[in-house]
Specification:
alpha/beta, Rossmann fold, 7-stranded parallel β-sheet, two-stranded parallel sheet, 8 helices, 9 strands, dTDP-glucose 4,6-dehydratase, Epimerase_deHydtase, NAD(P)-bd_dom_sf
Length: about 260
């Protein structure tokens, strides 16, 4: 296969699970981080390490232009260790900036480099109040107030930028992830209204790469406040998907 994938946020919780999965399925992965101390881990997972800041628009554009990826995956967040409650208010603002300004930089750079497919991480708890479970046609909570408004505005900006790929002759896929738990997430067990294991989230990203569709997908466990039936039907995703031992993920996938 040897398709090039530019994975923004390769050292994050989902990126850490996704990188070796993409590598095992034959993709040439260029994984980004803005921290030098995380580059070795990215290389150890089988990817090329790329040191770049999403807010450095010029360097980001030049980097993607040089790599010429066929797929760009956006898995960037900026969360405190163990989701420390006393640090979350600042994290909300940082994440909103990543979702708005950072996504604008990433999508613009991808389009300028001729990349036709962008897959991006969104969230499943930005829907307006209504009758649950929410499907992807339910509106976002644009009338939210306070910290929630900061989050929803950022999410709406991210999704507009990603879905604009569809209007430019490409494919933009939005993955509305539930509340993550599992390795590197700060949660060991399911929590929140729409729980999701981080490894199942990584599988959803891989499947979105393999099945390009220009639309949003809810990605959460059964019984959540959202329904993920669309992802199950269109992508073949399941909430119980986990990483396998080395060299067995493809055989497990083939047996589905």
């Amino acid at each position: 296969m040897n398709e090039k994938v530019f994975l923004a946020g390769a050292a994050g919780a989902i990126g850490t699970a996704l990188t070796p999965l993409l590598v095992e399925f034959g993709y040439e992965v260029y994984g980004t981080t803005r921290r030098l101390d995380r580059t070795d881990a990215i290389r150890a997972a089988g990817a090329h390490s790329v040191l770049v800041d999403i807010f450095d628009r010029e360097t980001l554009a030049n980097t993607i232009e040089c790599i010429q990826p066929s797929i760009v995956i956006h898995q960037l967040t900026d969360l405190p260790p163990a989701l420390a409650p006393n640090l979350m208010s600042e994290a909300v603002v940082r994440n909103a900036r990543i979702r708005s300004e950072g996504t604008a930089n990433l999508v613009s750079a991808a389009r300028a480099a001729g990349c036709k497919h962008v897959v991006a991480q969104s969230i499943a708890w930005a829907y307006a109040p209504g009758v649950a479970p929410y499907d992807e046609s339910h509106p976002l909570d644009i009338d939210a107030q306070g910290a929630r408004a900061v989050t929803v505005v950022g999410v709406a900006a991210l999704e507009r930028w990603v879905l604009s790929m569809n209007e430019a002759g490409g494919v933009g896929t939005v993955l509305r992830y539930g509340n993550l738990y599992g390795p590197c997430t700060g949660r060991d067990a399911p929590e929140g209204a729409s729980p999701l294991h981080v490894e199942a989230a990584a599988w959803a990203a891989l499947l979105a790469v393999q099945h390009p569709m220009g639309c949003p997908f809810n990605i959460a466990e059964d019984g959540a406040q959202v329904t993920s039936e669309k992802a199950k039907r269109a992508l073949g995703w399941r909430p119980d998907m986990r990483l396998a031992e080395p060299h067995t993920a493809q055989s497990r996938y083939a047996a589905r």
